[in-house]
Amino acid sequence: MDLPPQIPIRPLVRPVSTVVRPPGSKSFTNRALVTAALAAGVTRLHDPLVADDTAAMLTGLRGFGISIDDNDDPWLVLGSGGDLIAPSEPVDAGMSGTTARFLIAVGALARGGSVTITGRGRMLIRPQEELIAALTAAGVEVKADHGHLPITISGGGGLLGGTIPIDPSRSSQFVTALLLVAPLAERTVELVLSGPAVSRPYLISTMEVMAAFGAEVEDCGERFVVKPTGYRATHYFIEADASAAAYPLVAAAITGGSVGVEGIPASSTQPDLALVKVLESMGCTVRRMTHRLDLVGPPTLRPVDVDMNDAPDAVLALAVACVFADGKSRIRNVGNLRLKESDRLSGLKTEIRRLGGFAEVEGDDLFVGPGDLRGAVVRTYDDHRMAMSMALIGLRVPGVFIEQPEVVTKTWPGYFKMLARL
Questions:
Q1: What is the pLDDT at residue 1?
Q2: Is residue 416 within 8 Å of 395, Cβ to Cβ?
Q3: Beta bridge partners of 44
Q4: What is the 3-state secondary structure (H, E, C) of 83-137?
């Protein structure tokens, strides 16, 4: 996508009234790509996300010798049955956390040499120590520079299994990475969590994908038990991304308009759907259907006091809704936002203030409220969710420009076209 260094956001002349189908879920696409690559046989992945993060996963898996045809929908993945070849070159995960962490664990299964996973930008300083420690406890040789990428794994072609302790306090992706490879171990794997997992609902999504490919996973609260069943190929349908849906939903909420979001089933386990209940508490009207969600914004949004630890990716869109509420809101327990593609707590505070809103950070809590809103050029910190969320303010406030608009290609290449259609 070819975009200028900054783009203006055109304010709406009337409330939003539209139907949107967000792109496929990044979380489900990358989880399904890994399980399909480890399965025996040909898997068809329907409605996948085509974006930078999934392109990084495609490239990484091909480095392990996996054949993937992504020319058309569905993508065809010729699974390895767990027989992976160590890549001859370092695997570049780009700026994709799921790609880096999942492929670090996949590297433990590869034969024929060591595997090096690297990345770019903040991915080189994002934490990996907990995953390294868990793999080391599982008997895998791992070398890293102070707990960060690049990381070299010498797995020797498989996991033995048994009890593996892991610290999930900074990211549930560490747990997901081990869960995804556990069915390929020689014997049953028991993952023992040392404490509460941040963003724990993502682990439910992980188990859902694994089960679709024939894995047997038991959630015992502080531990997960995974049988050595391997995976079997299947047809897998990827639902629309709830994290992406947050933006059109908030667009309707802040304009008193209406939006229909298609492609997310009523039974979805995506954590960021927690935003819908929060928007209801702010005064929005919601109607849930089998494969569609409708939201109508109220004349005035109410402030909220809510814990968003389980749905951190939705916090940025929620913060924008709070800017237009009729009082100050408190978004609790979101310190993990400091460890994302940017320091999102700092970024939200700075950019909401730049646009005239109220924003403060106290410990791990974010306070947001209305103010004398004005136009400005918004920094995005090379972070797709900063760009997408701050652009929503421009739907109500003239003179908002977004720097680095191309960062949205990470998860929604057509995002600004969607906004223009509003």
A1: 53
A2: no
A3: 76, 235
A4: CEECCCCCEECCCCHHHHHHHHHHHHHEECCCEEEECCHHHHCCCCHHHHHHHHH
What's residue 360's pLDDT?
98
**Would you please indicate which residues are annotated as catalytic (active-site) residues?**
313
pLDDT at 138: 95
Residues 79, 36: contact at Cβ < 8 Å?
A: yes
For 251-344, list the strands marked E by DSSP: 258-262, 285-288, 292-296, 305-307, 329-332
Say what the pLDDT of residue 156 is.
75
Collect all residues with Cβ–Cβ distance below 8 Å to 140 and sequence separation of at least 6. Answer: 108, 153, 154, 155, 156, 159
Selected from 3.90.1300.10, 3.65.10.10, 3.40.309.10, 3.10.290.10, the CATH number assigned to the domain covering 6-24+239-421 reads 3.65.10.10
Residues 234 and 247: their CA atoms lie apart, in Å, by 32
- Taking the CA atoms of residue 366, residue 371, residue 377 and residue 380 in that order, the dihedral angle to the nearest 10 degrees is 10
Structure tokens, 127: 């934490």
Say which DSSP state 57 is in: H
Residues of the chain with pLDDT under 50: none
Task: Give the pTM.
Answer: 0.95
Cα–Cα distance measured from residue 140 to residue 163, given in angstroms and rounded to the nearest whole number: 13
Token pair of 95 as six digits: 């700026």
The fold of 26-235 is: UDP-n-acetylglucosamine1-carboxyvinyl-transferase; Chain (3.65.10)
CA separation for the pair 400, 419 (Å, rounded): 13
Write down the pLDDT at residue 211.
Answer: 98
Position 275 scores a pLDDT of 98
| Residue burial 219-229, b: 16+ Cβ < 10 Å; e: rest | eeeeebbbbbb
Position of tokens 């929005």?
A: 284
Query: What pLDDT score does 199 carry?
Result: 93
